[in-house]
Each structure stands twice: as C-alpha cells, then as structure tokens.
Amino acid sequence: MNYVHLVAVIAIFQFFYFGIMVGRARGQYGVAAPATSGHEMFERAYRVQMNTLEQLVCFLPALLLAGVYWPNSVIAGVGVIYLVGRFIYATAYMKDPAKRGPGFALSILPTFGLLGATGVGVFMG
Amino acid sequence: MNYVHLVAVIAIFQFFYFGIMVGRARGQYGVAAPATSGHEMFERAYRVQMNTLEQLVCFLPALLLAGVYWPNSVIAGVGVIYLVGRFIYATAYMKDPAKRGPGFALSILPTFGLLGATGVGVFMG
Amino acid sequence: MNYVHLVAVIAIFQFFYFGIMVGRARGQYGVAAPATSGHEMFERAYRVQMNTLEQLVCFLPALLLAGVYWPNSVIAGVGVIYLVGRFIYATAYMKDPAKRGPGFALSILPTFGLLGATGVGVFMG
Fold first, then answer.
1. Across the interface, do B97 and A15 touch by the CB < 8 Å criterion?
2. Per-domain residue ranges of chain B
3. Which one, of B55, B39, B38, lies nearest residue B90 by Cα?
4. What is the pTM of this model?
C-alpha cells in the first residue's frame, strides 16, 4: 500500500480543515470577504491557513520526491510527524501566536528531512 | 494522450491569468506594491488569486495522484469541472463577493472527489 | 543523476530562505504575528515570500511535468533560470518594489516555457 500517497491526501484534507476554520471565523468575528483583517481571532485563523499553505507547497513535493528514492513506509512516517506538527501549530497559534514555535518546528523539520533525503537520493542515483 | 497533464497545465495558466488581473487592478485602482489593500475592487481580484492559490495547491497533487490509480480521461474530466468552477468563482466574486458560493463549490468538490478517489485507489492497491 | 529533482529541492529551500527573511523582518521592524502589515520593509519581505509562493506552486509542477517529456538536463537548465530570476527579484524588491520587473520576468518566463514544453509533449504523446 502506498502510505506516502495516503499521507499526501491527509495533508491536503488537513489544509482544507484549516480553511473551513477561516470561513467559520469570518462569520464568528464579523470579517466579511474580501477583508483579511479586522479581528485578532480571525487573523490568527487566517495566518494558520496561510502558513500551512506555505508549508504544504514545500511538504507535498518533498514527500513525493523523497518517496522516489527511499522506502515508502519510512517516508510516510516522516510525513506523519508533519501532520502532527501542523495540528499542534494550529492549536497553539489560536491560543497564543507567541507559542507557535514548537508546532512550527515539528512541521518544517520533517520537510527539511525529506528535502535532504531527496538530495542524497539524487546524488546516490 | 495524457489529458491529466493537459488539465494541470491549463489550471496553472488559469491561475497566472488571475495573477495578471491582480496586476491590472493595481494600476486601475491605484494600489501600489507592496500594499494588498486600499480599494475594494483590487481586494476582490487579490482574493480571487489567493483563493485560487489555496485551491491549486490541493487540486494539482490530487489530480496527479488520482491519475495514478484511475483512468486518465475520467480524472481529466473531473479536472475540467474544477477549471469551469474556478472561472465561475472568479467572475462571480468580482461582481459580488457574497455570490462566490457556487463557483467555490464547483472547484472544491472536484478536488474532494480526486482526493477520495486517490484514497480508495491506495487502499485497493 | 536527476537534475530536475535537484532543482526542485533547491527551489523549495530558496522559498524557505525567503520565509526566514520574513521572520527576521518581523523582529527587525516590530511587526508581531498575526499582523502582515505595519512597516514598509516588512511588507516588502512578505510580498517577496508570497509572490514566490505563487510562482513556486506553478513552477514545481511545470518543472516535474516537463521532465516527463523532455531531457532531464535541458529542463533542469530552464529551472536554473527560474532560481536565478527569483534571487534577482527578491534582491530588487527589497531595494525598490518598482524595480521588481526583470527578476519577475526571469522567473515567470521559465515556468511559461516549461508549461509550453509540457503541452507540446502531451500532444506529441
């Protein structure tokens, strides 16, 4: 079974979930589109989504490329760390933006690892 | 012929087109970079681009992964619904942000379908 | 050696680098999260990152898809132009947003070329 593809699918659904949180925050805090500011709590939800967008754009190709060179289950395992890290990031950011560090590290470091693994894989042929 | 790749190429060109609309709106409504607010119509064009960015990051991997498991022409057909949905979304948003719902649904549902199809494909091996 | 994958990895690291610049600018110009405005220099760094995000979402699939149809080294070479173009874009934008044109062209034109090459490749089968 291709666990890497499964992690990719879950990562995209996770991002959609953060997007739903933004839509909910629009209603809850009265920030009508196209505005993206106006209430601190809306802005937090929006930043969680935007930061996850930035991470996802890097994570997905890194995951799929690393999967070309390394065992599927190992790469998928690294991907799960990203998923957990993002969840921690989102929860912490909504409570207090200053505490977003650990979740951020837990989602960016797996991507760095996957990129490094891809680089090594490329050089090893 | 790989219709899935063709849909991917068209989806990227569509996104570039929305980016050109933002550039044009900068001049038209006097919103100089790096500002991303200042005129309602510019903000609408910018939100169309940003929302399409969010969608594209999910749609492209979903499209390509689903194409691994399912017939090329079927997956490409689902992708065409996304392309039409995004076009409707952009047109409606520029007229009235409150009317962005149908186009939004028509572009997010195909992606959900592609992700579901990928998930089923993974489990079926 | 898969040069295309190597260019993809470098492009993602380049984007992360622009993200680090935004984090640094937050501290330097006193723009605490979740705000994304408040100081011109922060906004420039943020726009460099966001514009690169927009470009990367298009460049990476275009690069990998073109690599399916055309020689690895040629496609990777086109990708290197993108990398240089983005570097010029970022440097110029931080100095003066009005001078972002040449670097922008040097990173968007390679992507157009890759998309065109993919399209031709699809039709040629």
1. no
2. 3-119
3. B55
4. 0.95
Residues C82 and C102: beta-carbon distance below 8 Å? no
pLDDT digits (tens, 9 = 90+) for A28-44: 999 988 888 889 999 99
CATH of region A3-124: 1.20.120.550
Under an 8 A CB cutoff, do C16 and A68 touch? Answer: no
Contact B63, B114 (CB under 8 A): yes
At C35-62, the pLDDT tens digits run: 888 899 999 999 999 999 999 999 999 9
- Of the candidates B90, C50, B100, the residue with the CA atom closest to the CA atom of residue A23: B100
Instruction: Look up residue B123 and give its two tokens.
Output: 């489990």
Identify the CATH number of the domain defined by range C3-120. Answer: 1.20.120.550
Instruction: With CA atoms as reference, report the closest residue to A85 among A108, A63, A62, A67.
Output: A108
Whether the predicted pLDDT of A9 surpasses 90: yes
| Residue C15 at interface with chain A, using a CB cutoff of 8 Å | yes
Q: In terms of CA atoms, which chain B residue is nearest residue C56?
A: B57
Distance of alpha carbon A95 from alpha carbon A81, whole angstroms: 21
Q: Which of B3, B4, B12 to mutate to test the interface with C (most CBs of C within 10 A)?
A: B12
Tell the CATH topology of B3-119.
Four Helix Bundle (Hemerythrin (Met), subunit A) (1.20.120)
Interface of B with C in 42-101 (CB under 8 A): 49, 53, 56-57, 60, 64
